Amino acid sequence: MAVAIQSFAKINVGLYIGAPGARGDGFHDLRTVYQTIALHDTLKVEIKRGMSGVEIRCKDKRVPEDESNTCWKMAERVMKALRATGRVVISIDKRLPVQGGLGAASGNAVATLIGIERACKRRLEAAERLRICAEVGSDVPLFLLGGTVLGLGRGEQVYPLPDLPDLDVVVATPEVGVSTPAAFKAWDGLFDRSGMTKTAQSAKLDSFSHHVYEWLDRYCCSPTGVSTRGGNRAEPLLLDLVRTGIENDFERVVFPQFPELRDVKRAMEHAGAKYASLSGSGSTVYGLFAGKAAAVKAAAALQAKGIPAVATKTLSRAQYWRQM
Ligand code: C5P
Questions:
Q1: Average pLDDT of span 117-135
Q2: What domains are there in the chain, each with its CATH number?
Q3: What residue owns the CA closest to ligand 1's atom 19?
Q4: Which amino acid residue places its CA nearest to atom 20 of ligand 1?
Q5: What digits encode the pLDDT tens for the residues 66-87?
Q6: 291-299 own/partner pairs: CB under 8 Å, 24+ apart
Q7: Has 10 been annotated as catalytic?
């Protein structure tokens, strides 16, 4: 039986990075809010009986078809954990950018997990799912939840936040590939070259929880999912979060290296975004908009400037699972 699954993308709404060497494992501590969006790849997962191994098929030549693919890593681990046999054939219809900061490869990995479980008509225990996903990659586990997700640890410790109403988003995908490990290395360099100190960064990480607390406090007082703070105009909640001053630390190292991405952020703001930011380590830059018409118009304005851009919307947890 072949199982078709939509594998959605995420954006990072704020991303604070810890100082180098703060953990003993070579990774960096992170604080972020992940938000799934409606852009997606489509995967077909099939288990062929009487054979073994993993096979990946993708027309996009930038997608590896060997064991370095996150889907391959996931398939091997899930088949072993389920004690299932057969050859896992994964066909990827790639729409999302590769190395784009949208978590496409990580979402593909979770789609593989769900596909295998459905094909085998068996489900792994929640703890086992999480363990395997965290092993495959730091931003894989978020796709086990979907919606608005708090990410801690190296990004793999995930907690669901309240399911938010839709918000219009414009996603710009400049044709620049940013390597995440290289971006982390550049981040470490800031502590040698600039006045950045580990103590100050540690305090900044602490301030992240204050931002999120402040935001959740407002949300709890507004069970309808909109904030009326600052006047009568009800505004979508995710915009309230960014108003707390949350930002993406990767911009400090990625923008100097790829100034064209800073220009895309400025163009996004100029096109009317209430908030614009790099997603993950980029190269995707997204903008949050207060309405669909504004988002569609902004995407057209960016395209007219030669910047590939598309209007989409956030995907709540309920929508994520319904549409998957
Ligand atoms: O976990 P993942 O495989 O996505 O990480 C890719 C690379 O990014 C790691 O090998 C590491 O160099 C870097 N990384 C990090 N700190 C994190 C997440 C990733 O340094 N929290």
A1: 97
A2: 3-160 (3.30.230.10), 168-318 (3.30.70.890)
A3: 27
A4: 27
A5: 999 999 999 999 999 999 999 9
A6: 291/168, 292/168, 294/168, 295/168, 295/169, 295/170, 297/271, 297/272, 298/170, 298/268, 298/271, 298/272, 298/273, 299/170
A7: yes
